[in-house]
Write a structure and sequence with these properties.
Elements (H helix, E strand, L loop, with lengths): L8 H9 L7 H12 L3 H32 L6 H44 L4 H6 L2 H9 L5 H4 L2 H23 L1 H48 L1 H6 L3 H53 L5 H13 L1 H28 L23 E8 L9 E8 L3 E6 L6 H8 L7 E6 L2 E2 L5 H6 L1 E4 L10 H6 L7 H10 L3 H6 L17 H14 L4 E5 L7 H14 L4 E5 L3 H6 L2 E6 L2 E6 L1 H7 L1 H10 L27
Helix pairs in contact: 2-13, 3-4, 3-8, 3-12, 4-6, 6-9, 8-9, 8-12, 8-13, 9-11, 9-13, 11-12, 11-13, 17-19, 22-23
The protein binds adenosine-5'-triphosphate (ATP).
GO molecular function, one term: ATP binding
Protein name: ABC transporter ATP-binding protein
Subcellular location: Cell membrane
């Protein structure tokens, strides 16, 4: 079995449903460190620049003290002034370089996080995507990753440089007057204790805000995903209100986070102001008693104000860590979702005509989730290639699910699915899917040009290949009509194309992949006569040398099929040609009479495909 879950599914399920805040402190730290690690050298350089800048700033009060002491004497102060100026310029220049290096690194951290997350999210198992909200997953890539920017760079520097500057400033203050230092530290520790209580609230509010941003994305994705329906239903106002409500929620929690950050920040100023008053009072009396000099008190007070910077940096680092931990919890949660392993890369496209594939379902049972009922209750059939096999049956019988299982979008719960005699679980996913062309029921066409759509599944296809499939899919006339030909932009979800054109573009895209097996989930919508005829011709022509499986809703398709598999309630109840099945299967007879979409050109084809090859036999209809 080559499709391996990268994590334990149960653990992944738990991760996706539990509160991301539940990431332990250690896990949070490890996850953040993982993003920081590749950049630690550059962050060290940024830290060094910041430290040099801080050191030059630290020397300034000493130079100022000498300057004040010389004011009374007759010595020149020009040299000292020059030194002070040089210190300021040098410190600023080095700090600027450090700031640039760090900002650049911060962007790199975001880029790396986005790359890794996109790489994983686009390989998610379908079931995982169905369990989550794509809009919310998108917001983790676009919004949460940006919050890693500061925590992995600036806050590391702030913590290191702030911590060192803090200690160095304390050392200088200790040299000047240990008693006044004791007073200062007493105040700082008291207020620092209060700040520590506030910190977790920042993480909590940030996380709620990010969740609300995810809800905004989800609501937008829903609205834009069904834009015409939204308009046709007159639901613009309601959808707008839903997005606004989520946006308001994001704002509310964002403001709450800002409030707690402001409390943390203001306590820095408060700590220094209170210390200043205490030092001024106690220091003044010490000057009066001759225990210390005015110059020492002035220098001490200057250092006290220099303390604002390192303490601010420490508080900033701590609050950034809280913001980052909220983001990393959501990122890790997305990273833990179960992904597919594509296995070995897709084989290069074949130059010769590919051999048609065979498909066997052997007692396949399947349910979409453990808490849902079974959809397949032991489905068995054999399809030798080439030729066309139509799957028919009432809505919900499990026809589309057959295709999903062949593509291994989901794993069968029981039984075996063989493609060319090999169990699909033993085939590398890339190889399996490389052999298949898949056209979904709503034939999605992606935003972009026609050419981009055609090359989507076969980027290396040549112009000659493209021309070939255009002719086969009867799109050549359309392309000639379009002003920009293949480079015509088709709009969001191909909205500038007709339903039939979209379907043929989807078929052409699948054919360009040179599949050995074509899975065609026929649209349930009625096509006009020309489109239906075109489609029928394409499918008939393709099925001459490719195995084509069609979930058929149209009588015209069914009657063309070499064999028809009749499904009902998750079981195969009969296999045969149209003529055979009309004669011996009551459900099929009823479907043919009432449920198949009649041919748009008025042809009924109900006489059956007399030239149909002998039918396969169901291998068991439990
Ligand atoms: N992704 C899914 N998650 C959960 N249940 C699903 C999913 N897809 C389909 N089902 C359920 O599985 C059953 C079979 O669906 P399937 O799409 O295979 O039916 P179908 O025969 O192709 O129907 P139709 O002719 O209407 O397209 C249905 O009851 C459907 O609700």
């Amino acid at each position: 079995m080559t499709t391996t879950a990268t994590t334990d599914p149960a653990a992944a399920a738990t991760a996706a449903t539990t509160d991301p805040q539940k990431l332990s402190a250690r896990e949070t730290w490890q996850a953040l460190y993982r993003h920081f690690r590749p950049h630690r050298g550059v962050v060290a350089l940024g830290t060094l620049c910041t430290l040099i800048g801080a050191a030059t700033a630290l020397l300034q009060p000493l130079a100022a003290k000498s300057l004040v002491e010389r004011l009374g004497g007759d010595g020149s102060i020009a040299g000292l002034l020059l030194l002070l100026t040089a210190l300021v310029v040098l410190g600023t220049a080095i700090e600027s370089v450090g700031a640039y290096v760090l900002e650049r690194t911060a962007e790199s951290v975001v880029l790396a996080a986005r790359r890794s997350l996109v790489g994983r999210l686009l390989r998610l198992r379908l079931a995982e995507v169905e369990r989550t909200q794509p809009g919310d997953l998108m917001s983790r890539i676009t919004s949460d990753t940006t919050l890693l920017r500061a925590v992995t760079t600036q806050s590391v520097v702030s913590a290191i440089s702030g911590g060192l500057s803090f200690l160095a400033t304390l050392a200088m203050m200790a040299l000047l007057d240990p008693v006044l230092l004791g007073v200062t530290l007493g105040v700082i520790v008291l207020i620092g204790g209060c700040v520590a209580l506030v910190m977790p609230k920042i993480a909590q509010a940030t996380q709620r805000a990010q969740e609300a941003v995810g809800t905004v994305s989800t609501a937008l994705e829903r609205a834009f995903g069904a834009f015409r329906t939204v308009k046709a239903s007159g639901a613009e106002q309601r959808e707008t209100e839903a997005v606004e409500a989520a946006a308001h929620e994001a704002w509310r929690h964002g403001v709450r986070s800002a409030k707690w950050q402001a409390v943390a920040w203001s306590s820095v100023g408060l700590a220094v102001q209170v210390s200043f008053l205490a030092v001024l009072g106690i220091g003044g009396s010490r000057v009066a008693s001759g225990a210390t000099s005015v110059a020492t008190l002035v220098a001490f007070l200057l250092y006290l104000f220099y303390l604002i910077d390192p303490v601010s940096r420490l508080v900033e680092a701590a609050s950034q860590y809280q913001v980052g931990s909220a983001a990393i919890a959501r990122i890790v949660q997305a990273e833990r979702l179960e992904t597919e392993d594509a296995g070995e890369p897709s084989p290069p496209p074949t130059t010769t005509a590919p051999a048609p594939a065979s498909v066997v379902f052997d007692e396949v049972t399947f349910r979409y989730r453990d808490d849902l009922p079974y959809v397949h209750h032991g489905v068995s059939f054999e399809v030798p290639g080439p030729g066309m096999t139509a799957f028919v049956g009432p809505s919900g019988a499990g026809k589309t699910t057959v295709f999903a299982l062949i593509e291994r979008f989901y794993e069968a719960t029981g039984g075996r699915i063989l493609v060319d005699g090999e169990d699909v679980r033993d085939l590398p996913l890339a190889r399996l899917r490389g052999a298949i062309g898949y056209v979904e029921q709503d034939a999605p066409v992606l935003a972009g040009t026609l050419r981009e759509n055609l090359l989507f599944a076969a980027p290396e296809a040549t112009e000659a290949d493209i021309h070939g499939v255009l002719v086969r899919a009867k799109l050549d006339a359309l392309v000639e009509r379009l002003p920009d030909g293949l480079d015509t932009v088709v709009g969001h979800r191909g909205s500038k194309l007709s339903g039939g054109e979209r379907q043929r573009v989807a078929i052409a895209r699948a054919l360009l992949r040179k599949p050995r097996l074509l899975l065609l989930d026929e649209a349930t919508s009625q096509l006009d006569a020309v489109n239906e005829l075109a489609l029928r011709d394409v499918v008939t022509e393709v099925s001459r040398d490719v195995t084509v499986l069609v979930v058929a809703h149209r009588l015209s398709t069914v009657t063309l099929a070499d064999r028809i598999v009749v499904m009902d309630a998750g079981r195969v109840r009969a296999v045969g040609t149209h003529t055979e099945l009309v004669a011996r299967d009551p459900l099929y007879g009823e479907l043919a009479a009432t449920q198949f979409l009649a041919s748009a050109d008025g042809g009924n084809g109900a006489g059956g495909n007399g030239a149909a090859t002998p039918a396969g036999t169901p291998r068991g209809t439990p």
